[in-house]
Amino acid sequence: MIDVLAVLGDRATIARQPAFRIEQTDDAVTTAAYHALRTEVFVREQGLFTGHDRDDRDDDPRTVVLVARDGAGEVLGGVRLGPATEGPDLGWWLGGRLVVAPASRGMIGAALIRAACAYAENAGVLRFEATVQTRNEPLFTRLGWTTVRPVSVADTPHVLMRWPIGRIAALAQATKSDLGPLLAGLTGVPGFVGDDGVPVPGSDLVAACDAILPSMVERDPDWAGWCSVLVNVNDLAAMGAEPVGLLDALGARDRSFAARVLAGLRRASQAYDVPVLGGHTQLGVPAALSVTALGRTARPVPGGGGRPGHRVRLTADLAGSWRPGYAGRQWDSTTSRRTPELRAMLGAVATARPAAAKDVSMAGVVGTLGMLAESSGCGAVLTVADVPRPSAATVGDWLTCFPGFAMLTADEPGAAPLVSPAVSAECGELVAGSGVTLRWPDGEETAAIEAGVTGLGTS
């Protein structure tokens, strides 16, 4: 690039070229240079190790090495990071062996730390930690890390530090936090405040209503039509209600666009065997789509029926894959299912009748668990290793995506699981307090959501 700029006479841009660049190692020569630099610093200069500082993490194929190079390609520093546990990646990573050549110390260390944090977050990590020499604690603190506790490495004082990853809390904040103030004073049904659907007083009917994001309708009209049915029948299923019919309201710029939305809606209606009873269609307007669903049950299951001590269970359809164009955000398991399978999943809550149930919404698994706990007047702990998850999804993506079909339920210990083609597993419990905490394999617990999600309060 510099040669091209020189030919163009762009000396100003050449002068602004950074003194180093950071990249992931992709060859044995660069990795060897990084290891040699570690030996120079940690063995010869600091005397922390004898002979070498290599360990099992260097041999783990999942370990990532980031290096800083100067303009000539020489390795000036590096850092490694990767999963903290053997087996499946649970979204808990460790950083370490941060090293910078003596003649290059200054900005490079901080840049490598920032690059490692960004890489970990992009990899779907929800817990990222590093053991840091005590003298380097102020640097990490200035970069936003928090100190967990003192530790010892190679008989030398270190501190365990943690990078705060706010992905879950940010999602809950963006999607649900305004609901309480906005909806204050609106009439609700006692015992079902904030539920996925609402019992119609004086009847055995349950009504649910969901709108699809206009940007999604514009971008992928067929999928939007399918999802308008999916999210509504899931809402009824969480209440233990059997769907009986749908009403749709569609706005579209022209007949052709409306036909594409309705094609997806029609396919979903047929797949779920739930008829469209009527609705409204308006042409010549910006894209808009909402669907109301009606179902029946004499005993609706509340979202706020949980109590401290209840076990939390996630029942999720792990089949399928990421919807094209929505990787990491929307999991599509339903379009490949047959009608009997879809209906069996919709009937799982009605059969098991747990104390509380909510279908996983745009707030993701953790955000939805926070809503269930909030409406139940308590908090929740989610055991990350026990959460059923498709192998193609990182923990960070899975816990924050819209998963197609997924139900969170709470009930007494030993209660019957939800039976359906979906995978069901106990993965936590409700506790006194508020918010949601993640429990990790080492017993450590980290806060994911500090308090209530919606502000709607106890149901």
Structure commentary:
The chain contains 15 helices and 21 strands. By secondary structure, it is α+β, with helices and mostly antiparallel strands. The protein folds into three domains: 19-165, 3-Layer(aba) Sandwich (Aminopeptidase); 168-184 and 302-459, PurM-like C-terminal domain (Phosphoribosyl-aminoimidazole Synthetase, Chain A, domain 2, Alpha-Beta Complex), CATH 3.90.650.10; 196-300, 2-Layer Sandwich (60s Ribosomal Protein L30, Chain: A). A seven-stranded mixed β-sheet has the order 1-2-3-4-5-7-6, sandwiched between helices. Helix 5 (107-122) links the parallel strand 4 (92-100) and strand 5.
Q: Please identify which CATH superfamily of the largest domain we are dealing with.
A: PurM-like C-terminal domain
Based on Cα principal axes, name the global outline: elongated
Percent in strands? 25-35%
Would you tell me which CATH topology of the largest domain applies?
Phosphoribosyl-aminoimidazole Synthetase, Chain A, domain 2
Fraction in helix: 25-40%
Structural class: alpha+beta
The largest sheet, given as strand count, sense and whether it forms a barrel, is: 7 strands, mixed
* DSSP, total strands: 21
Note the total helix count: 15
Low-pLDDT windows of residues: none
Pfam families: Acetyltransf_1, AIRS, AIRS_C
Organism: Lentzea rhizosphaerae
Protein name: MSMEG_0567/sll0787 family protein
InterPro entries: Acyl_CoA_acyltransferase (IPR016181), GNAT_dom (IPR000182), MSMEG_0567/sll0787_C (IPR023911), MSMEG_0567_GNAT (IPR024035), PurM-like_C_dom (IPR010918), PurM-like_C_sf (IPR036676), PurM-like_N (IPR016188), PurM-like_N_sf (IPR036921)
